[in-house]
Amino acid sequence: MPEQPTHTPRSLIVTLYGAYGRDLPGPLPVAELIRLLGAVGVDAPSVRSAVSRLKRRGLLLPARTTAKAAAYALSDDARQLLDDGDRRIYGSGSSADGWVLAVFSVPESERAKRHVLRSTLTGLGFGTAAPGVWLAPLGVYEETRHTLERIGCSGYVELFRGEHLGFAATAAAVARWWDLSALAKLHEAFLDEHEPVLRAWEARESTPPREAYRDYLLALDSWRHLPYADPGLPPELLPEGWPGVRAAEVFGALDLRLRKPGARFAGAPETCADG
Known about the structure:
It contains 11 helices and 7 strands. The strands form 2 sheets. A 4-stranded antiparallel sheet has the order 5-6-4-7. It has helices spanning 9-21, 30-38, 44-56, 76-89, 112-123, 141-150, 170-177, 180-202, 209-223, 226-229, 243-266, and strands at 28-29, 60-64, 70-74, 99-104, 127-130, 133-137, 157-162.
């Protein structure tokens, strides 16, 4: 399982737009991007380089503010990505029982798409039940459909809803389909970085907006990758003492304490921080 790409300039820009950028009254000026990323230690050249890469990917669109300053707005694809991400990042897991199964077949003449599909399904949190048979908790179905349509691969994939009927116990099967040891290490790394931050805030009476913004953006940047690596696997199928439970509690507490004050520093309406 690849290391999660947290705290890179590109990742932090995506996190910033997801947390505060969607409800701004207009596009986000480049000067504001530099100010806001500077608060978490990213210099101006790194911001500009990361913005250029996001523009090439079609996620950010060049724009102008009413004062004619250079700015960037989210593309429709980027908004869809962020909206889908909200359900994972701020949700408590799917309440729907069962699994979504993805079965794909790619002609030999287009075999490069096999790698694209495998990478995409892995990035969405799918496990592998058998060669060419992928599955994930049912709650990721809508996002999977949106993603396959966006990358132009929906014609190669069939999606099914199913339940596990045997023969191995489902908990044992889940341990084969996902690398639970690697997932646990991701949750533990999140806790190592952000649980001390939560304890420090719990000892404080005030919540200064700049500091709240900094700590929240970094926590969100770490957390938002985890619900994709660990796509809401049912708790009863996970090992006892699963660290993802505590990781979710820590992120939820930081979100509750820091998101709204952080919005004041980011210049966003507090309504965008209501969850």
